[in-house]
Amino acid sequence: MLNIDDISEYPDKLSKYFVVDIQVRANDDSIVLYIPKDKLSEDTKVGHVTRRQIKQLCNRLSSKYNVEVQTVYLKSRKSEELEAGIVQLINSRFENSVEQLYLSYGAEDVISIWLQSTKGGELKKDEITEVVNQMLVLSGLKLNAMHWINSEPMLPSNILLLKAIKERQPIKAIELAEIFQHDYPDTTASWVSRILDKLIKKGIVVREHPDGNYVLTMMGLNVVPSIKSRNGTDIVRVLELGRKKW
Hints:
Elements: H1 12-15, E1 21-24, E2 31-36, E3 40-41, E4 49-50, H2 51-65, E5 69-74, H3 77-93, E6 100-105, E7 110-117, H4 125-138, E8 142-150, H5 158-168, H6 173-180, H7 189-201, E9 205-207, E10 214-216, H8 218-223, H9 233-245
Parallel strand pairs: 2-5, 3-4, 7-8
Antiparallel strand pairs: 1-2, 6-7, 9-10
Helix pairs in contact: 5-9, 6-7
């Protein structure tokens, strides 16, 4: 099994590419590189790295260690401010429609937005999308897609499910259901399976055969918020892996 200590390029050589952290996924030994979004540039310039350079780095690491190498772009302060600004704008114009909102960056400054609301069918989706798109254009960004998540009082949100998967992956649907049943009594394995099937179609989760475990894809890793604290998903995941070994 590959360990972080086996990767001789970390941290010195990888720091030249602004890699601030790495992770070796336990289920498939994939290497995950964490790079601040604001260090990316389309053109070569001092203090930045291009996507082409990162791709070349990933190819070299993949060839050397014979594993898949993925990249997660961390939110910058500018991104967090944009996220907060979008929430404030929507809530001021559409009667506090938004509970939570997450931005997921793709290539060429194209982003997807996950928006959680309690208004359900009453939400003015077309109007909100237009307002958000105008704000993104002013910020030099392009909107790829808006993902709408309707809150259900006794069921966990998709974001909570994704965070739980990241903390404990690989994991089965029934195990996910058991995690949430105390705080969300209506959570069942069949409901979790239906939600995960939808997330699979969106390319966020994959189901491993034949054991039926679920793990996050690269897109899924980008969606899950990065929390730098003792209760952050990466730290909880380490603790969970330790428990499984026992």
